[in-house]
Amino acid sequence: MLELIDIHKSYEAQPLLRGISFTVAAGETVCLLGPSGSGKSTLLRIIAGLETCEQGQVCWEGEDLAVVPPHKRGFGLVFQDYALFPHLSVRENVTFGLRMQKLPAAQIDLRTTEILEMVDLTGFEDRRVTDLSGGEQQRVALARALAPNPRLLMFDEPLGALDRNLRDQLLNDLRRILHESGVPAIYVTHDQEEAFALADRLLLLHDGCIVRSGTPEQVWGDPGTLWVAKFLDAGNIVPGIIRSDHPPYQVETSAGVMELDCTGEGVRYRRGHAHLMGATVHLLVSRYGARREAHGTLSALVEDVTFHQDGFKVKLDCGLIFYFPDAPQVGEKLTLTIPRSAVKCLV
Fold it and tell me: What tens digit of pLDDT does each residue of 106-143 get?
């Protein structure tokens, strides 16, 4: 098991990583998700031993890896730019790590055949990697990382250079390969779709800190903070003022009064934040939570309607966006009810 304990790192005298701690369990895929410059790749390089941290520990099964050089950590890396040996064939790229382990030729051949079959490159053994497509080159890079049976796989934006269709295909294959291999993995990306598709657990980085962690379902269902909700585009974000501090908790917004059904001191108490009578808060309102009802508490005019696979996307003049199964008319006045279950309070 990998464990990071209180990792700190600065860049040009500015803090980049501030007290990062997390674990990766056997067979688990952890995705580090965050905007560019949030320290994701630097953290990966610290784990790999390519950079040092100013404070903290990187441990494997309780052993501090500070004095263990990168090539002896038993970790495999896959980069966005493939980092293949252009003068070598597919087979020679894949067998590179195996030859470094000085394995018998028969064992190398058997392992190479297994890995190329896993990444769907059987028959490509003798091709030069420079003659392959971007997706095929990335498969070779993955095969080379998997071949020596690494203790941990690390991916640094591996699909960033691919077009969308190829990326979606390789993403599905990567999920299958990680499941089949059982190798624990850390996947760094700024792409939410990739992270949600691959992760057993998500870690969101912002300003050098992990601001939210959990399964994809947990993080999407309850972003927790205003920054996470905005970054994920998780729903309508509505500022409001608390007008009652007892059930049903009522929040006055520019779009009308909304109610919350939650417990704790005041309207919401989480991570040490108490929202009390008269306080200004930010609400996260699900885009799928509105019901069209004659006696609803929210009235607004339809500004725009577009069709999406999830339904009709309706933009209202109050700034809110909702999805409905049926399309209203532009200019139509809608009366809506927002159930309490569709409203969360952000920190």
Answer: 999 999 999 999 998 999 999 998 899 888 888 899 99
Other beta carbons less than 10 A from residue 340's beta carbon? 15
- Determine if the peptide bond prior to 184 is cis (ω within 30°): no
Cα dihedral 124, 125, 127, 128 sign: positive
Nearest to 79 by CA among 159, 165, 194: 159
- Over residues 5-29, mean pLDDT: 95
Buried b or exposed e, range 206-238, using 16+ CB within 10 angstroms: bebebbbebebeebbebbbbebbbebbebbbbb
Q: Give domain limits for the chain.
A: 2-226, 235-346
Contact 127/50 with Cβ under 8 angstroms? no
Q: Which CATH superfamily does the domain covering 2-226 fall into?
A: P-loop containing nucleotide triphosphate hydrolases (3.40.50.300)
**Amino acid in position 148:** P
Give me 57's structure tokens: 């520990």
For residue 262, pLDDT over 80 is answered with no
* pLDDT tens digit sequence for 46-67: 999 999 999 999 999 999 999 9
275-280 CB contacts, 8 Å cutoff, 24+ apart: 275/242, 275/345, 276/242, 276/245, 277/242, 277/243, 277/244, 277/245, 278/241, 278/242, 279/241, 279/242, 280/239, 280/240, 280/241
What tokens appear for 96 in the block?
């590179």
DSSP state for residue 57 in the 8-state scheme: E
Q: Specify whether the CB–CB gap between 277 and 265 falls below 8 A.
A: no
- Distance of alpha carbon 144 from alpha carbon 131, whole angstroms: 17
Task: Give me the pLDDT at residue 275, please.
Answer: 60
The model's pTM: 0.88
Which ranges constitute the DSSP H helices of 222-302? 226-232
> Can you spell out the DSSP letters for 294-335?
TT-SEEEEEEEEEEETTEEEEEETTS-EEEESSPPPTT-EEE
